[in-house]
Amino acid sequence: MRFVFFGPPGAGKGTMAVEASSEFSLPHVSTGDLFRSAIRKRTPLGLYVKTIIDAGSLVPDQATIDLVKERLAQPDARSGWLLDGFPRTIGQAQALSDFCPENWVIDLQVSDPVLISRLSGRRMCSGCSHSYHMVFKQPKIDGVCDACGSPLYIRDDDREASVRNRLLEYRSLTEPLVDYYREKGNLVMVNGEGDPKAVWASLKQIMLDLHALKH
Ligand code: AP5
Ligand code: MG
Q1: Measured between alpha carbons, how far is 46 from 37 in angstroms, rounded to an integer?
Q2: Is the minimum distance from the CB of 88 to ligand 1 under 6 angstroms?
Q3: Could you report the per-residue pLDDT of 106-159, keeping only the tens digit for each?
Q4: Are the C-beta atoms of 149 and 68 separated by less than 8 Å?
Q5: What global pTM score does this model have?
Q6: Could you state, in order of their start, the residue ranges of all structural domains in the chain?
Q7: Looking at ligand 1, which atom is closest to the CA of residue 32?
């Protein structure tokens, strides 16, 4: 199984990828999480990308492509993966098709007002990839991750100005990929609105159906 979770900031890519990773035992490869981990560890990559990410802009293609290529070459990704947040430009999509021609792209569709309400209430786990929401997906204990017990935090790029820029970057640089993948024939539109459990139930069925189609 090789799936790209595609969609605007706040569409639920990370939330759904965590569910799918546990259901299908596949590595969840989120470029955003990889960059945030590099920032926390203060690696050269982390120092390079911090201001770019905080401003809500995209990291240049080559650094992003190298990072994904290296991650997908690891043994746990040999038989499949879930990509979350990559590709995000035509250049990245072309690079992905060079090193992995076969995959499905799931486009999670969510309207702008819903995206903004999701991002403004999001809380992230500092220890794993789980994201929570102050209203829609509360942790059992306030400020603590249900899955790993680590403290929750607010992402720097969830501030209003960064969110605005992320949505603009999405519309100008990332959304054109919808036509690119529609032409390739591997794009599947999924309604990303509604209760997270209901979205996951329909997405899981779609993933199973797509997987069966390939075999
Ligand atoms: P990244 O971390 O990928 O951020 P993003 O694409 O902006 O997406 P988000 O993580 O904000 O949203 P999501 O779709 O994962 O939603 P989530 O599940 O958390 O990238 C961050 C930055 O890194 C980029 O801006 C860029 O600078 C850089 N970067 C990353 N990849 C790059 C690339 N390929 N090229 C260049 N630069 C790159 O859900 C959001 C909230 O809603 C949560 O609170 C969640 O609990 C809640 N929620 C989820 N589903 C539902 C639902 N059905 N109902 C109600 N609430 C829900
Ligand atoms: Mg995410």
Answers
A1: 8
A2: yes
A3: 999 999 999 999 999 999 998 887 899 999 999 999 999 999 999 999 999 999
A4: no
A5: 0.95
A6: 2-110+185-213
A7: 2
Tokens 């819903």 belong to which residue? 114
Active site residue 184: no
Q: Could you name the CATH architecture of 2-110+185-213?
A: 3-Layer(aba) Sandwich (3.40)
Residue 100 Cα to ligand 1 midpoint, Å, equals: 23
User: In sequence order, which ranges of the chain are alpha helices (DSSP H)?
Assistant: 13-24, 31-40, 44-54, 61-72, 90-99, 112-120, 160-169, 177-184, 196-213
Going 151 to 156 to 159 to 164, the CA torsion angle's sign is negative
Render pLDDT for 47-101 as a digit per residue (tens, 0 to 9): 999 999 999 999 999 999 999 999 999 999 998 999 999 999 999 999 999 988 7
* Sign of the alpha-carbon torsion through 95, 101, 102, 104: positive
